[in-house]
Amino acid sequence: MGVEIERKFLPAGEGWRALGEPVLLRQGYLSSDPARVVRVRVEGGCATLTIKGPSVGATRGEWEYPIPLHEANELLDTLCQRPVIEKYRRRITHAGNVWEVDEFLGANAGLVVAEIELASEGQAFDKPDWIGREVSDDARYFNSSLIGLPYSRWQR
């Protein structure tokens, strides 16, 4: 079993925009139940099927498998819950860690989330100056939650 230990933050300012090359991702969910998330993702010419277990703190079980691109596109177009998540991702290296900054499109346009994957929950890491408030414990920011309640419908 793989393990994902991830923390999420909102960017502070626009400094991240000049870093990293944006890549378009499309992802959809066959199951968005927090106890068993099943995701299909297309990134460039590659596709994956990912299964995630329930979160305990910032940790959850994760299993990821490459799948044929044409099958991923079929799943995204026919079986995945709506809306399919579309976003631009930038991978930015800072102080030896990789930050993934997602700028969402469509029903989630206007939302930007920065994530870092860690080796342990207690791992220390240096935050870039463009990292703001942590939202790891706010389920609204989970990609699987954004299909049920897109950012465009949040009360702000």
Automatic annotation (TrEMBL):
One Pfam match: CYTH
Gene3D superfamilies reported for this sequence: Hypothetical Protein Pfu-838710-001
SMART domains linked: CYTH (SM01118)
InterPro entries noted in UniProt: CYTH-like_dom_sf, CYTH_domain, NeuTTM/CthTTM-like
UniProt domain CYTH: residue ranges: 2-156
Catalytic residues, chain numbering: 29 (proton acceptor)
Protein name (Swiss-Prot/TrEMBL): CYTH domain-containing protein
Organism lineage string: Bacteria, Pseudomonadati, Pseudomonadota, Betaproteobacteria, Burkholderiales
Organism: Massilia glaciei
